[in-house]
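Page 37, continued from 36.
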């Protein structure tokens, strides 16, 4: 609909169908065309990025994505989210490092977890690498335990610290439910290991720091309004990436887990595989 508004696509591309903003009927019709690859549905069926590249005409400028996955939420004024989308192993997926500390202005929670208030300051770029690393590990733990991410986040954002539950606290909950003894240190190491396995899998596919980025207007166009007015991700993303890799113990040049980090996490066989594949030079 934006491409229609800007004249990048016309009736010649849509079999004469008009794509005006808010036309529910044309959206419903397009979903059916997508499913059966009919008309413009054939262009759109392989995803937004592929469609924009095939269409050309400057269309890709209007697709905000990371690693080919799109998101509708504008992240320019929220460095935590911009960083989280860029480093996500499957693209711009908010659930990979989901956190609400910044959006809810919870400097108090940031202070309790990280020892600094900055993670809870929405537009600040400071300590966002620390915050994203924690929430990425938290998401790995949540998915492994089969619990709801939103419940976990709600429990961590309680106004009364007495009722707040943070990542290390799930070790005793796990032990109570399963009868298996689990320390906070072991639980957090398990979560970190999961994340590093995902990163290592991407590494053998050829992904590296060059892919931990954002595309479209998120990067280059200043945010037009709201809390992040005037901000653009290109101005701060590299700085946040450096901090994130340092927090993870990764190589800041390549954005990849080092052999030493993998061995520290008892992933020796993974380190050997990446070495044989020539990932480490």
């Amino acid at each position: 609909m934006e491409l229609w508004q800007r004249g990048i696509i016309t009736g010649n591309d849509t079999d004469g169908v008009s794509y005006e903003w808010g036309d529910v009927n044309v959206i419903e019709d397009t979903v059916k065309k997508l499913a059966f690859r009919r008309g413009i549905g054939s262009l759109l069926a392989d995803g937004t990025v592929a469609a924009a590249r095939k269409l050309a005409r400057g269309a890709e400028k209007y697709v905000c994505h990371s690693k080919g996955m799109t998101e509708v939420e504008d992240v320019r004024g929220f460095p935590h989210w911009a960083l989280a989308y860029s480093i996500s192993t499957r693209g711009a997926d908010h659930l990979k490092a989901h956190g609400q500390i910044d959006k809810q202005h919870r400097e108090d929670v940031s202070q309790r977890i990280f020892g600094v208030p900055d993670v809870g300051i929405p537009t600040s770029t400071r300590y966002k690498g620390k915050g994203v690393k924690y929430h990425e590990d938290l998401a790995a733990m949540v998915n492994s335990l089969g619990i709801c991410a939103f419940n976990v986040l709600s429990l961590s954002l309680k106004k009364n610290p007495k009722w707040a539950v943070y990542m290390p606290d799930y070790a005793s909950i796990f032990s109570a439910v399963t009868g298996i003894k689990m320390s906070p240190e072991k639980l957090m190491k398990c979560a970190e290991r999961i994340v590093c396995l995902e990163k290592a899998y991407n590494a053998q596919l050829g992904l590296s720091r060059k892919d931990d980025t954002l595309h479209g207007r998120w990067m280059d166009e200043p945010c037009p309004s709201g809390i992040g007015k005037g901000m653009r991700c290109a101005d701060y993303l590299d700085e946040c990436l450096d901090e994130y890799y340092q927090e993870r113990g990764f190589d800041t040049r390549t954005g990849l887990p080092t052999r030493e980090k993998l061995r520290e996490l008892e992933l020796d066989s993974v380190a050997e595989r990446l070495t044989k594949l020539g990932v480490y030079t």
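The chain has two domains: 2-63, 71-276. Flag for discussion at group meeting. The mean pLDDT is 94.
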